[in-house]
Amino acid sequence: MNRIRLHATAFLAGTLLLASGNAGAVDRTVPPVPGPVRPLKLPPVKRVALSNGLPVLIVESHEVPIVTLVLLIKSGAAEDPLPKIGLAALTAGMLDEGAGGKNSLALDDALSYLGADLKAAATWDGSIVDMEVPVARLEAALPLMADVALRPDFPAKELERVRRDELTGILEARSEPRQIASWGLSRAIFGKGHRYGSPADGDATSLAALSVADLRSFHEKHYRPANATLIVTGDVQGAQLVPLLEKAFGSWAAGGGAPAPVPAPAQLKGRKLWLVDKPGAAQSVIRIGRVGPDRRTSDYEVLEVMNTLLGGSFTSRLNNNLREQHGWAYGAGSGFDYRRTGGVFLAAADVQSKSTGEAMVEFMKELERMKTPPTPKEIERARNFLALRFAEQFETSRQMAAKLAEIVLYDLPIDTFDSFVPKALAVSSDQMVRAARAQIDTGNLAIVIVGDRATIEKPLQALKLGTFQVLSVDDVMGPAPKLE
Amino acid sequence: MRRVLLAVLLSTAVSGAAFAAERLEVPYEMFRLKNGLTVIVHEDHSAPLATVNTWYHVGSARETPGRTGFAHLFEHIMFNGSKNVPEGAFDQWLEAVGGNNNGSTTQDRTNYWEDIPANALETALFLESDRMAYLLDTMSMARVNQQRDVVKNERRQSYENRPYGMASILLSEAIYPADHPYHWPTIGSMEDLGAATHEDVANFFKRYYGPGNTSVVIAGDVDTKTARALAEKWFGEIPAAAPVEPLAPRTVVLPGEKRLVFEDKVELPRLYISWPGPPAYSASEAALNALGGVLATGKNSRLYKRLVYDLQIAQDVTAGLDAGALSSTFDIIVTAKAGRSLEEIRKVVDEEVAHLTEKPPSQRELDRFRNDYEAKLLVRLEKVGGFGGKADQLNQYFTYTGNPGYFESDLARYRALSPADVHAVAFRYLGPGRVILSIVPEGKRNLALAEVAK
Known about the structure:
The structure holds 2 protein chains of 2 kinds. Chain A is built from 19 helices and 14 strands.
């Protein structure tokens, strides 16, 4: 019926229909051709320094009356002094548990009354105190943020409470197949000897031992102006802002310096498969990885386009294969986690238990296939998908602050993001193949699968993917935390 | 939801809240096409981006017995091609111009969005309109079957293989009677997912996916005049369908307390207390949301402070309203610390609930919640597309209130709240008629509440 109606209208005079704006004449036989790409113009970054040398980056946007402030400390979990893993994370997590004469509850009350959302956390490469606050309350909230970042009390009583929360969190993680797989993969790739082989937030043994003195010492060493940058984005006027920042952060005693980098991790040799039994599990959590490049790699744009094609978009080969073609999984994907030193390449899916072996065959096939040139259509799609909506990553003040933090943490050129789009759009087939051969070397991989051993062990064994080991949750996550 | 893609992201992102002091307005223009399609246009020229956000006013509440999960399965099928878009091309063509997309299904509605670079707006309109007009022309059972398997794996991933994943399903079944549209879960049962036929797909599409039951928001770096002309061009030819009458609200009263126990592959016991409540955007909703904030948002909230901070017998606590067009539930969820009994937790929860049914909270407690609510609403306005961006919010307000520009009214109902209002809804809704679910580690029923209250 629709077809007949369409054919009928096609016989009518096109000009008449167009002029009247009437429906029915639209040609659907070819998709519309997009107009010229509208260029992305990033707002200027203003750089100033406070009297103690603390660098400040400011980007103004005036659509919504809120401000994001990020105090970025260039030391994170990678700087944990062994064996005190989890120290950077616990230090950050304890900052708002009492500071500048206010206890934990008083701080929370003051901040939430202002509508200020303040959080502190550590990643591998940095420790971050961030606050999002309505611009009208910025002046009232700034001293609280400075107290938390610069003058934490680390009360022993609160440490015991937070420690118990963290240990209980690890206990919970032991029942979560994805968490088990995540711990397992880091260990399988980096081993026990490298910091990356253990969780950034620490494990049950290390968290039980960290003391107030440890937290103080990490804070004193790393939370220093020469190892920090303050980022302010949102509805601020630079000229009026700087005196407020000076008042809050200018008295922070100068000094400090960048930490020594962690040693570069060694690449895997050969293939290994670890199976962690989760009796009765409906799905197998599959995680495949190896050591990846750092954020400053000159191949960054090439790798991002290549990964978009492999597992970074809906039409990517992994998702298309495991989900759309086979229906074994809700989704499949891959990605690079670039760090200051080295990083991780990861491919992943949660697949229905009975298809685990077949899914592994397809995974290996797709990784292997990256060594041969993709079709021009695939390449163009991946480039455009990655590059043409790049503006989206700068839409909110929070996102803008995160992108600036990336520049600071990895000492990237300030025009990094201005040049991203043209660079990504220029990535060639040869470059992608070369990058895939270097970074997705299927001969040297770690595979961790958490699932129902009774169903999946035999099919996996039969594939002879590499050295095969069955591990317990304890093997992967260490002993369960001791909780009374 | 249609998809979850893994992304390895740097966690340097920050998160937070803000505050609105002035009148909150998101300018838009709304018009209706001859076929009944509602179109809402919002201009935001701050970045060269645009979005097409479509809400079909149908969700799992419209499903029939033996076909639970169908609305959501249908959402998946919508991506598998239409007359002029071959199978797989929806995503390929959209990605080729730099676009991204997703969809989601709730009890009340199914939504879809395409985020695109602004120059490719027409690609999104073409794709969205083609499936609205011509989905059935190329529909095959093979396509249905393929997405059926994907959805079954979505159920495994999001419910069965996830600790506590079955809780929401058990609670709805216990609160809502078998013939209530919220009784069954949006994800559906495995058996029903297997039962859907081609005829089901065709009937559902004809009945609920007509333009008169649908609203489309076009937002971003577009001008209203052009957007309007393009909406006419691409959606105008879609034939009108029989009108769909909205379902009438249907709230629930429970005669007393119902207790359930479920053993799961978890380490920590978790207590769920669920009371039936009023529909979304009804008069009591704002006060009930505030009640949730007073109980469990922030370290100073009543339940967090007692259970997590002072007594340290709980790992976390949440409280709040889960509201739909027909009804809602007010849920308190507490994860106990290892080895703690849920009876011990329940006693404290009931003490704190009793305090609020007896006496209003302080003004400061209310203000803390309100400032947080306003801030979070503002933060969402920084984003145009995706789930929860401005376009999605305009469509949500339109779908539930008829007014896409409900932003200021939304804030106003929270600004007008007094502590007495919070007390009043606590008294009215948090009574003896409720469902309590204990989820405990396998073999540890001793940590659950007794099946019958003592």
